[in-house]
Amino acid sequence: MRIESSEYKDSGLLRVYENEKWMVGIKNWKPANDLQGIDCLERHNETDELFVLLAGSCTLLFANEKDGGLEIEAEAMEPHKLYKIPRSLWHNTVTRKDTKLLLVEDSATSSKNSDVIMLDQAQLARVREVVRP
Question: Which CATH number do you get for residue 16?
Answer without folding.
Answer: 2.60.120.10
